[in-house]
Specification:
Layout: H1 22-34, E1 39-45, H2 55-69, E2 79-80, E3 86-90, E4 97-99, H3 108-121, E5 135-141, H4 148-164, E6 169-172, H5 178-190, H6 204-218
Antiparallel strand pairs: 1-5, 1-6, 2-5, 3-4
């Protein structure tokens, strides 16, 4: 087909909406004011009876967080996980707070302390921690001008290390291209783990209402 080699794939969901739409302009302004980047969520789910509150699972969170912060174009502050968020305790001799996984909890007492801290903070329930405590998310802010297809491929490559350890992974991103979905399916097949694709849809009216609700919350 003439011109086919020159076609470019745009995986940004905003490409589907007119640039002059009020919701898009508002979204653009919020991103500019607060330096917001689209998050890609990588979810680690543990089959251990204690869920993610187990040293091996938490170690994977630290390792994968470190790997994702090294992605090209991703700033350290663009990655959020239990390994980056501050807790209540100071570093010895400093005024800065330790992260929730600093040092990595090992004993039952330290793991219980982490649970207690998360309950007190509350902010991470349903965002970084699932309600049942069996899964945790790592959020990666996509660079504005990044090739998202390449970024997702690199995240998928690094997530393979987690799959190799026997733990499931959730990739939360815009997989509008069948090729991207098939690549994720092949990754799961290569590690002999189940693969489920979840698609979320909403009516335009519901999307508009959500945008207006966000606008009111910011005022």
């Amino acid at each position: 087909m003439p011109g086919l080699p020159r076609l470019e794939l745009d995986t940004d969901g905003r490409a589907l909406v007119p640039a002059a739409a009020p919701e898009v302009r508002f979204d653009r302004e919020v991103r500019r004011l607060f330096d917001v980047r689209d998050p890609i969520a990588v979810v680690i789910r543990s089959s251990h009876r204690e869920g993610i509150f187990h040293p091996a699972a938490l170690r994977r969170v630290v390792e994968l967080t470190t790997a994702l912060r090294e992605l090209e174009g991703v700033r350290p502050r663009d990655v959020a996980s239990l390994a980056t968020e501050p807790g209540f305790r100071h570093r010895p001799g400093q005024l800065t707070f330790r992260t929730l996984l600093e040092p990595l909890p090992q004993s039952p007492e330290e793991l219980a302390e982490l649970r207690s801290d998360l309950r007190r903070i509350e902010l991470y329930d349903g965002t970084l921690i699932s309600a049942d405590g069996r899964a945790t998310a790592i959020l990666v802010g996509a660079p504005p001008a990044a090739d998202r297809s390449q970024l997702v491929r690199e995240i998928r490559r690094r997530a393979a290390a987690v799959l190799s350890s026997g733990r499931p992974v959730v990739l939360d991103a815009s997989f509008r291209c069948r090729r991207q979905r098939q690549a994720a399916r092949r990754l799961a097949a290569a590690h002999r783990v189940p693969f489920d694709f979840v698609e979320c849809r909403a009516e335009l009216g519901a999307l508009r209402q959500r945008h207006h609700g966000s606008r009111g919350a910011l005022r």
